[in-house]
Amino acid sequence: MLEIDLATEQGAASMMTRVERVAHDACKALDRLYPLNPDPDCVAEGSTLFVPVTVVLELEWVLRSSFEFGKDDVLITLSSLFSAAELSFESDRSLEVALQLFRKGSADFADCLHVALAARAGEQPLWTFDKAAAKVNGARLLTRFV
Question: What span, in angstroms and rounded, lies between the C-alpha atoms of 52 and 90?
């Protein structure tokens, strides 16, 4: 397993280089699969790569399960990515709120994101069967059916 210290500038820069390389390779693969793509470079100079919120959830899971990142490393990685000028995130404000909830609490990132997205939609509280998720500010435990 590759060890990168994300708390250092060099480690964070190394991670960003790896992310940029993966994004570039993904674009090249798309160009090969879809040769009619009007943008042959996929992400032109000065433009951004769009990242759906579901991809962020998958990334967080992969960082924990495959790379064995702890909570602090996940926080540093996601914070760095969210501030990258080359990336444009769906529901970026909700992602930032979720990151803050995750930083402060014991619930997992996905639960924090669900609460943040519900708040953004004006649908609070977020009702949940998950006792850990119910501890997040903005969530409530659903204990029985009526």
Answer: 5
Residue type, 12: A
Q: What is the DSSP letter of 134?
A: G
Nearest C-alpha neighbor of 79 from the set 66, 97, 67, 105: 97
Longest CA span, the chain = 56
| DSSP letter assigned to residue 56 | H
What is the value of pTM for the model shown? Answer: 0.71
Residue with tokens 């820069």: 13
Percentage, residues of the chain above pLDDT 70: 76
Q: 17-57, pLDDT tens digit by residue? A: 776 766 666 566 555 555 545 555 555 566 788 889 999 99
